[in-house]
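Progress report, Aim 2. The chain analyzed during this reporting quarter is listed below.
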Amino acid sequence: MDTVRLGIVGLGNMGKAHLGNIRAGKVSGMRVTALCESTGTLPPLQDGETGYKDVSEMIKSGKIDAILICTPHFSHTTIGIEALQAGLHVLVEKPISVHKADCERLIAAHTDKKLIFAAMFNMRTNATFKKVKDLIDSGELGAIRRVHWEVTNWFRTNYYYATGGWRGTWKGEGGGVLMNQCPHNLDLFQWMFGMPQRVRGFCQFGRFHQVEVEDDVTAVLLYDSGLSATFVTSTGEAPGCNRLEITGEQGRLTVTDNTKIHFQRNRRPMSKFCMEAEAAFAMPESWHMDIPIEPTGGQHVEILQNFTDAILKGEKLLSPAEEGIRSVELANAILLSTWQDKTIELPMSSADYERILIEKGEKSTFQKTKVVAKATADDFAKSFR
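Predicted structure tokens for the chain:
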């Protein structure tokens, strides 16, 4: 094989964006040969492309080697399992599934390790976070003591939720800001710091919008190493901010807006200085420096290229889908902790969470304000973000 024949299922905003990048020739060794959209209208087909309304028909067509899944969250699991069982390579948009039990089912279907199974965690290509991870892994920050990440620049209007009928409901979306806007942040969190051992969540549901899911979140994550972390996010706060603070033995690293890194570096490790200084109010000498970073990474195109090269050349994946269970488990644990009003030990019970989520979906009587008729086609496309 010298070219990967790709089928895309789900032609909402992200599906169309990926299609445009591949058609423009930005992904070497990949071409689109099939498109599937079960509810909307397919974009005009180009030479060599076939359109489908039924994803099973596309999977069985023999016209594709790989599938890119860009559908609403709950269907990621069923489509992914069917594709893997049919012998296709799979790239799935975030999150890989809505809850941990479905993640486990999807991952269990990946029995043929010759098949490439990846997730669209494009923020791992961001030069800023690659640099932060390098500073952590290299020991430049020393042992990490505390982390605080405030991600409140996800502001959304009530109209945003109303224009997507599945948005803001347990049955349609399976969650709110944690499941829709923050999978990338949660993936980066575990990628950089590893998984915590205990999670305590404090979620508010429909605080700022006419939705039944969480739109305001504060979480505390605790590690056996002594590291403590807080994660704060919301879709109802403006102006919001995106600020990650990492306190280590060697000083404090601050990441602002995913683009700037500032390091206040201690000349001596803080614990060593604490125990050795012979002055009551002394502080270790520290130096302020801005960390240089390269231009931002290739984002979605880089993940698509890496997926292609993994198939054609055996290149190592940047974002294996199996790792996608971690960000889902963090989101699930934060919600479960809120519902049960207690600290959740990780790994958490996937069965407990699935049961509660199903019950919430079945019992929901939530009705949104009906403004869908006023929405334009562009509004509807944006609802898939």
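The domain at 4-122+298-320 is CATH 3.40.50.720 (Rossmann fold). The CA atoms of residues 152 and 240 lie 5 Å apart. These observations will guide the mutagenesis work planned for the next reporting period.
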